[in-house]
């Protein structure tokens, strides 16, 4: 389809290694971390990512590249950005420069990437992080590093990285949010090359248990309203021994006037994007067509605590499913809602649908059902049960467990017996999260993909993303209870691989 598409390895073993996700994005080979430069242009969703092309662990960072027309099927493209005399290519963003404000495109539009160049101050081992540009005139197929790089330096700040840029219509300026130690700094520009400091957000706000990384800032409607909107700032927190769960991503909801972000919540209120352990450095796509009103997020499905130890080869790490974001007013305030992009349903195979049945103690609704790439949709009345148990990726030896405790409104996730957990002492964990079942109605949407479980609870107000490494034989499913559960709906849909092109 694309002239520059990489030759796929023509083998039926393509994307069939142990643990290989079948409908999540993974690089063909080697190490990947943060999603970068996500931008939509001329009918394609671009995904760049932190990539080490020669190793299965982190190293000199490049930008790997893939494109998709539906956010589900991906086409791998050649590496977009390689380290040069200014250093490694760390995380950053990309925008469509529709009106050629940069002057790179001779009056036309084109793609500009804004990223961190990382090296050391000459003659020292002191890290130096400066912001640079690259641009593409051919739909992202080839990139030129701007000869005026770097365009933004701040020698007083050591951790100064991961610029996310967007066009702010009301002030007619580009805005950059960038991690600056344990705050986010905001800059503005008319041409993407000259940046002016606007404000700093974050001191005394939210969690400061780790270095701040990978910010994003965007506006979303509240409760699907056309006039009430709020700004959301995402901030990832690097792993520190004090953080029990390793690296995590927090968010703030507030107001933004083109220069300053003001948090609506109490300063010490911490809101997490994902309650699981394996969703980090996530940001959103730029330049999605306004008419669609969409804001789509994707994170790196791992955790700095153990990312380099996970037992996979020849690749390491996957991205989360792409998720649509919205805001909903709840009892505790305006909160982020995440739902998987609807296009994921295009890979559903015929499965099993249970409707209006009663499940009693001792029974397993999913008896005989199996799958390590499945989409589970549950709508249950749990008011006559203390406990509802969902077993995933199950065999005699292994099982990933989700258990709902209706009395305490908690969802327990347990991966202690999920499979290989030996590679890091933090991996075999259980966690318990508050999830409401209003009037006894428990709604869960769960995606299992060989080595990951993503849980969307309720309307998507509680999300949990966790890695697991079960043996291939562990595919059983269980839905059971200690009382009586009325099953309004339980749908089990096997999902097709999106990586089978080489075998076709
Ligand atoms: C986040 C991060 C970024 C940095 C990149 C380097 O995971 O640490 O702050 O730009 O990874 O690969």
TrEMBL record:
InterPro entries documented for this protein: ConA-like_dom_sf (IPR013320), Glyco_hydro_32 (IPR001362), Glyco_hydro_32_AS (IPR018053), Glyco_hydro_32_C (IPR013189), Glyco_hydro_32_N (IPR013148), Glyco_hydro_beta-prop_sf (IPR023296)
The keyword Hydrolase is assigned to this record: yes
Q: Which residues form the Glycosyl hydrolase family 32 C-terminal domain?
A: 363-492
Q: Which UniProt keywords apply?
A: Glycosidase, Hydrolase
Domain Glycosyl hydrolase family 32 N-terminal, by residue range, is: 24-340
> What PROSITE patterns does the database record attribute to this sequence?
GLYCOSYL_HYDROL_F32 (PS00609)
- Per the record's keyword annotation, is Hydrolase included, yes or no? yes
**What's this protein's family per the entry?**
Belongs to the glycosyl hydrolase 32 family.
What this protein is called in its record is: Fructan beta-fructosidase
Taxonomic path? Bacteria, Bacillati, Bacillota, Bacilli, Bacillales
């Amino acid at each position: 389809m694309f002239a520059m598409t990489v030759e796929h390895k023509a083998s039926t073993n393509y994307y069939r290694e142990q643990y290989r996700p079948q409908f999540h994005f993974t690089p063909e080979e080697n190490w990947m971390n943060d999603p970068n430069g996500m931008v939509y242009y001329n009918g394609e969703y671009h995904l760049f990512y932190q990539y080490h092309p020669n190793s299965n662990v982190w190293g000199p960072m490049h930008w790997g590249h893939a494109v998709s027309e539906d956010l589900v099927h991906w086409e791998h493209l050649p590496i977009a950005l390689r380290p040069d005399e200014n250093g490694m290519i760390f995380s950053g963003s990309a925008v469509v420069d529709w009106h050629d404000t940069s002057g790179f495109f001779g009056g036309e539009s084109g793609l500009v990437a804004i990223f961190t160049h990382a090296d050391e101050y000459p003659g020292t081992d002191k890290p130096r992080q400066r912001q640079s540009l690259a641009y593409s005139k051919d739909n992202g197929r080839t990139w030129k590093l701007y000869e005026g790089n770097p365009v933004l330096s701040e020698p007083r700040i050591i951790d100064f990285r991961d610029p996310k840029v967007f066009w702010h219509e009301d002030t007619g300026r580009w805005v950059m949010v960038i991690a600056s130690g344990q705050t986010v700094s905001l800059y503005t520009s008319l041409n993407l090359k000259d940046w002016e400091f606007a404000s700093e957000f974050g001191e005394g706000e939210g969690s400061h248990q780790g270095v701040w990384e990978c910010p994003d800032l965007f506006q979303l409607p509240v409760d699907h309203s056309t006039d009430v909107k709020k700004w959301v700032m995402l901030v990832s927190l690097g792993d520190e021994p004090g953080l029990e769960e390793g690296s995590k991503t927090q968010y703030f909801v507030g107001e933004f006037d083109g220069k300053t972000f003001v948090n609506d919540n109490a300063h010490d209120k911490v809101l997490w994007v994902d309650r699981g352990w394996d969703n980090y450095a996530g940001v959103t796509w730029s330049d999605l067509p306004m008419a669609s009103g969409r804001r789509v997020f994707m994170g790196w499905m791992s955790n700095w605590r153990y990312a380099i130890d996970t037992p996979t080869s020849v690749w390491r790490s996957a991205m989360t499913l792409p998720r649509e974001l919205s805001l909903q007013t709840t009892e505790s305030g305006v909160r982020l809602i995440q739902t998987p992009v609807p296009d994921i349903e295009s890979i559903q195979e015929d499965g099993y649908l249970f409707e209006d049945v009663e499940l009693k103690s001792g029974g397993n609704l999913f008896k005989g059902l199996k799958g390590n790439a499945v989409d589970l949709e549950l709508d249950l009345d749990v008011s006559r049960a203390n406990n509802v148990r969902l077993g995933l990726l199950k065999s005699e030896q292994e099982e990933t467990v989700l258990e709902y405790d209706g009395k305490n409104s908690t969802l327990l996730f347990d991966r202690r017996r999920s499979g290989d957990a030996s590679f890091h002492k933090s991996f075999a964990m259980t966690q318990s999260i508050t999830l409401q079942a209003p009037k006894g109605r428990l709604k869960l949407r769960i995606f299992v993909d060989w080595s990951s479980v993503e849980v969307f609870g309720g309307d998507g107000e509680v999300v949990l993303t966790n890695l697991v490494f079960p043996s291939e034989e562990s595919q059983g499913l269980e839905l059971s209870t200690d009382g009586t559960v009325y099953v309004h709906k339980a749908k089990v849909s096997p999902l097709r691989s999106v990586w089978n092109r080489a075998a076709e």
